[in-house]
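Hi both,

Apologies for the delay on this - the queue was longer than expected. I finally got the calcium ion-bound model through. Below you'll find the protein sequence and the ligand SMILES exactly as submitted, and right after that the structure tokens for the full complex including the ligand.
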Amino acid sequence: MAKGKTPIVILGLALLLLAGAWAQNPKKKSFPKSHKGCCDEVRSLKVQVANLTSILEELGRKQETDLITIVRQVMELDKQNRQQEARVTEAESKYSEINNRVEILQLQGAQSVTQTSSDVMYDCASLHAKNYRISGEYRLPKDEFLRTPELSVFCDMDTDGGGWTLIQRRRVGLTSFDRDWKQYRNGFGTIRGDFWLGNEHIFRLTQQPSTLRIEIEDWEGQTRFAEYGYFSLHNELNSYKLFLANYSGNAGDSLRYHNNTNFSTKNRDNDKCVDDCAALRKGGYWYNCCTDSNLNGVFYRRGLHTKSTDGMTWYGWHGPNYSMKRVEMKIRPHSFHR
Ligand SMILES: [Ca+2]
């Protein structure tokens, strides 16, 4: 019976195989359909990605080019800036050179004029009378006839007609004014910066009737002045005693209190007080007991000037606790003509 059934079994298997093959074929045919769609999408995506990459690369290249252009522009601007700076430096140098030449001419002029006329007291007013009208430093040579020493002075040829010889200036603040008698007698500091001309020179110059003008500036940039129509010092034997009169101006009369007072320094207390005013107020001045002004006091920079009473004060304007930003004291003889 088994032998009789074998061909049927084989046939059955063959049919099954055919059926299986047939059943697989449609699947195989349907797969490529969906696989083809997938590949198209992938290809499309790939193309898009490629395009985007290309755009990105292009953008990158463009940014790089822009960056290079900007760097080049910055470098060019920097170069131009350096060239301009060089030009400014050159111009400044030329200006300085011209200025020096003018100053040398001023000095030479002052010297030659002095050497040919020893009949006048030499100061900025007499230079002005000889038509020297530029404010600046002048060197007055030694004069045997007048027995006056060589002296550098700073002339203000602008204020109220000019002809002013500066006897004091504070504007930089690096020069200490807490000095001894000898230094105040002979003078100290730099004529273009902060200085005291020297009591001996002031005494000599004020032998001719003179006016004193005091100009002060506060830290807000406001300026005021005090003028004394009469101003002179006594000699050293009389401690350079101060004489002044005829106040005018808008700063207040804060030197009147010091009138008829001897000059004091930290090593020579000539004031009218039990206290040692020069030591307390840290400068040389005509202290009475002690001050209504202290123009040779401590130079306090902005913000520090209210902390003590030893500053560069002028009570008539800002009281005892305010130290000025700038001070100039200058003299001019009554004989001055504009
Ligand atoms: Ca005293």
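Main takeaway for now: Residues 293 and 314 are 4 Å apart (CA to CA).

I'll put the files on the shared drive as well.

H.
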